[in-house]
Amino acid sequence: MIEVQHESPPASRFAVADTIGILVSDAARLLRRRFDARARAIGVSRAQWQVLIALARVEGSSQAALADRLEVETITVGRMVDRLEDAGLVERRPDPADRRAWQLYLRPRAHDLLNDLAPVADAVRAEMLAGLAEAEQAELHRLLGRLRANLLREG
């Protein structure tokens, strides 16, 4: 009997199961999924809470700036804002510097909703950080901040 030897396929640099990029991406995806499931229980969709949180960070944003922050098309943000405006959560105000543009602001009801989401965020964050000492949490926060800063740098 003749023994046939099979060559192993060449090792691929993508064969590494858990690169830092994969771990960060998976953690972010799972975090969004967990938060989304809990937010839905209080009546907020993923698109809604993402827009509301983004606007809470920078009220007075234009739709184009908001679309940039959310990494979606301007028309997509326009539709989301239409629905949020109909629900009494967001209002459009004329931009004094550009009469063709609108600035977006949260209505009081949106602030109430964001207050309702805060304990949801706290609970999900606690689940995510379970088992990490305070010093480890602080170091993780510091390191992720540095990663973000590195990626924000041009060039």
Give a description of the structure:
A hairpin with a 2-residue loop joins strand 2 and strand 3. The chain is mainly α and 155 residues long. It has one domain: Arc Repressor Mutant, subunit A. The protein is 62% helix and 11% strand. Strands 1-3-2 form a three-stranded antiparallel sheet. The longest helix is centred in the first third of the chain and has 22 residues. The chain starts with 19 loop residues before the first helix and ends with a helix.
Task: Please give a handful of descriptors for the protein shown.
mainly alpha; globular; three-stranded antiparallel beta sheet; 3 strands; 155 residues; Arc Repressor Mutant, subunit A
